[in-house]
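2024-03-11 09:14:02 DEBUG pipeline.ingest accepted 1 chain
2024-03-11 09:14:02 DEBUG pipeline.ingest length=135
2024-03-11 09:14:03 DEBUG pipeline.predict start
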Amino acid sequence: MKRILIKLARRTIPLAFLCAFLCVSAAALENPFSDVRRDAPYYDAVMWVLETGVTAGTSSTAFSPAATCNRGQVVTFLWRMAGQPEAASDYNPFSDVGRSSFCYKAVLWAVQQEITNGTTDDTFSPGNLCTYAMC
C-alpha cells in the first residue's frame, strides 16, 4: 500500500468517505451504530472497518460518519489495514508525536514506507484535519 493520491479540492475528508474509499468487502455483523442506517451508501464499509478493527466508531453506539478525520486518525487507519506492522526503526523526527500517542507506531511506519511525511521537518501535526489533497 504505497501512496494514495486523490486530486480533489482541499476539502476535509468525512469519515464515511474514507471508509468507503479504503474498504473492499462488507461484514455480516450486527450494526451497533444508531447513526449508520442500513441503506446508507457507506454501510458496508463501516461494518467492514468495525469487523476488521480498523476503527470502532466514536462511541459504542455512534460512528459519526460525517465527522472529519485528522492526520493521526487517517495514518492509524492505514496502519491497521496493513496489519499493524512494526516500523523498521524507532527514529522519530516529530516533536508532536510522542511514544504515548495513539498514532506513534502508525506515523513511524507510514513515514518509513513513504506513505506520508510531516507538515515540517520536525512536526507531523496529528491533530490537523486531513484533506483530500493530502491523500
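2024-03-11 09:14:41 DEBUG pipeline.report The chain has two domains: 8-68, 71-134.
2024-03-11 09:14:41 DEBUG pipeline.predict end
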